[in-house]
Amino acid sequence: MTDQTALQYTKDHEWLFVQGDVVTVGITDHAAEQLGDVVYVELPAVGTAATAGDQLGEIESTKSVGELFAPIEGEVVEVNDAVVDAPDTVNHDPFGAGWLVKIKVEGTDFPGDLMDHDAYRAFVA
After folding, report:
1. Can you give the residue range of the structural domain that contains 22?
2. What's the structural domain count of the chain?
3. How far apart are CA 114 and CA 57, in angstroms?
């Protein structure tokens, strides 16, 4: 499991883990709880351009369909095929095995509205 205090969070309930120029993206436990039992995950192809705010994929649950938005500009360099094969991983381990995509970014232009762990917890409270 990724240390949640080391992550950045979006208002779309996604988390970002920055390692050099690669950002791992997943959905938060709050988002997973709101979705309910995840039954289908659609992720972009490796090489897809990620444009901040644009849809990158889809997460379907027994309750609803949610969209995965690109939180940052870059190129998708890896997708988690394991969650495509076992979508409920997103529910059981959203901060670990349930990660969704890795995006290679150029520069350090991160959106200004990213939140740290404490700010995100206050946001969802």
Report:
1. 4-106
2. 1
3. 20
